[in-house]
């Protein structure tokens, strides 16, 4: 097999063969209907507002599609996924059913790539993989389907630019998140380059405290032991810094952190020096930004409660929960099954590690329910949750069935238009 046929970054050329299956697995007539009805459903004293932007982003859509294409094109080869394709248990389960095997997380075994052989297919998830894993997989000669999102690559370009010019990348993110680990690896493949990962405003303030001489080197290194590059010395490596972020963080917090660091450097070295010593690029992806803005709109409209659907370990979903719950009663559920009944809900409150079951969550009387979903939640799961919510609120079965049928008709018309355009 030629080199060209061992590395795929722009699809595998068999999209038409998988479009129908993807549609059947992940689409929802009810969601299509809502989109065509101004993202609003009204019946008696219930109004349901679906966020203007929600669910699968362009990067996830593409990653899932390429995984399906890979199975269709190479049905007889062992197919591996490095970690999870996205943080959605339902989608990962579906891929497993299709025969995709999951490689263990790097920190759980000695060599997480040990089982991969030259004849295998390996799918790189939308988060990307650490540079060393990518190099090893290329050397092993297996077929690589690289779904690393273009917006993640933009972050990599920023931190590489910093690394080449001797600037330490200060990355707003979670040091143990797949995307951030991959981003950090783009720094350390440049000799002598360093990174520091800060999770939130409170950690950024610790960095400011060091910059202004309020905490010492030992205290700093204890605090950031796991979140800094090997050999990191704050006295040396915070001299010139460049801010970047994991693409799914709270954009307002990323901007705030960049501002805090710049202000601390200005207080220590003066305004002119701060311009030279602190660089910043906003690398929050547009899909994350649009979903966060759309939740703020739901909040501004005065929803009585907001349901956020998405993996409990999904970073972008948790940030939607954070925004919504600042002012509105919010329930983070993973799927429709978590909406147990009108009386009981299984949800993960903001900041908790595990979900809990709560009684008396859905009030009687006039109600406006806002619904949104993280970038790794397919329409099928959103539609199933909305259907359940509307049923709890007494929307008749025939009304739901009509809406679903109408949405399917709209989606079919669109697919038909796309088919004729691709033939033309
Ligand atoms: S959230 Fe943004 S960076 Fe992540 S996969 Fe989606 S589009 Fe790409």
Secondary structure: elements and pairs:
Elements: E1 7-8, H1 15-26, H2 29-36, E2 40-43, E3 46-50, H3 58-73, E4 79-82, H4 89-97, E5 100-103, E6 121-124, H5 131-140, E7 143-146, H6 150-164, E8 168-172, H7 178-188, E9 195-198, H8 201-211, H9 217-223, H10 234-237, E10 241-245, H11 251-269, H12 271-277, E11 278-280, H13 286-300, E12 305-309, H14 315-325, E13 329-333, E14 344-347, E15 356-359, E16 367-373, H15 379-392, H16 397-423
Parallel strand pairs: 1-7, 3-16, 4-5, 4-6, 6-7, 8-9, 8-10, 10-11, 12-13, 12-16
Antiparallel strand pairs: 2-3, 14-15
**What count of structural domains?**
3
The CATH topology of the largest domain: Cobalt-precorrin-4 Transmethylase, domain 1
Helix content: 40-55%
Nearest-angstrom radius of gyration?
23 Å
* Content of β-strand: 15-25%
Which cofactors or ions or other ligands sit in this model?
A: iron/sulfur cluster
Structural class: alpha/beta
The total of helices stands at 16
CATH homologous superfamily classification of the largest domain: 4-hydroxy-3-methylbut-2-enyl diphosphate reductase, catalytic domain
How many strand units?
16
Give the strand line-up of the largest sheet: 1-7-6-4-5
């Amino acid at each position: 097999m030629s080199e060209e046929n061992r590395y795929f970054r722009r699809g595998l050329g068999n999209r038409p063969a998988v479009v129908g299956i993807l549609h059947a697995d992940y689409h929802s007539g009810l969601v299509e209907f809502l989109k065509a009805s101004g993202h609003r459903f009204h019946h008696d004293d219930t109004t349901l507002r679906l966020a203007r932007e929600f669910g699968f982003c362009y990067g996830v859509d593409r990653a899932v599609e390429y995984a399906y294409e890979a199975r269709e094109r190479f049905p007889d080869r062992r197919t591996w996924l490095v970690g999870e394709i996205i943080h959605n248990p339902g989608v990962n389960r579906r891929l497993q059913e299709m025969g995709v095997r999951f490689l263990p997380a790097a920190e759980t075994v000695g060599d997480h790539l040990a089982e991969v052989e030259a004849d295998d297919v390996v799918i790189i998830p939308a988060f990307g993989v650490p540079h060393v894993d990518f190099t090893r997989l290329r050397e092993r000669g297996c077929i690589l389907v690289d779904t690393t999102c273009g917006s993640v690559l933009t972050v990599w370009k920023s931190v590489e630019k910093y690394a080449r010019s001797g600037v330490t990348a200060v990355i707003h993110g979670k040091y143990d998140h797949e995307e951030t680990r991959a981003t950090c690896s783009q720094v350390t493949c440049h000799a002598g380059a360093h990174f520091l990962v800060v999770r939130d405003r409170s950690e950024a303030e610790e960095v400011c405290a060091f910059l202004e001489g309020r905490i010492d080197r030992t205290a700093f290194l204890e605090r950031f032991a796991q979140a800094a590059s090997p050999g990191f010395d704050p006295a040396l490596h915070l001299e010139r810094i460049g801010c970047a972020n994991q693409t799914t963080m709270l954009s307002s917090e990323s901007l705030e952190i960049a501002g805090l660091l710049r202000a601390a450097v200005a207080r220590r070295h003066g305004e002119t020096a701060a311009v030279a010593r602190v660089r910043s690029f906003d690398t929050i992806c547009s899909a994350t930004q649009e979903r966060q803005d759309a939740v703020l709109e739901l909040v501004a409209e005065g929803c009585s409660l907001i349901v956020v659907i998405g993996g409990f370990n999904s970073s972008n979903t948790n940030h939607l929960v954070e925004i919504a719950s600042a002012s509105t009663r919010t329930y983070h559920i993973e799927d429709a099954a978590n909406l147990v009944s009108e009386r009981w809900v299984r949800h993960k409150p903001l900041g908790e590690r595990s979900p809990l079951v709560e009684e008396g969550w859905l009030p009687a009387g006039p109600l406006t329910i806002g619904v949104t979903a993280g970038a790794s939640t397919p329409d099928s799961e959103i539609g199933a949750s909305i259907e359940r919510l509307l049923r709890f609120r007494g929307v008749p079965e025939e009304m739901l069935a009509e809406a679903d049928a109408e949405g399917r008709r709209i989606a079919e018309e669109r697919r038909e238009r796309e088919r004729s355009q691709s033939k033309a």
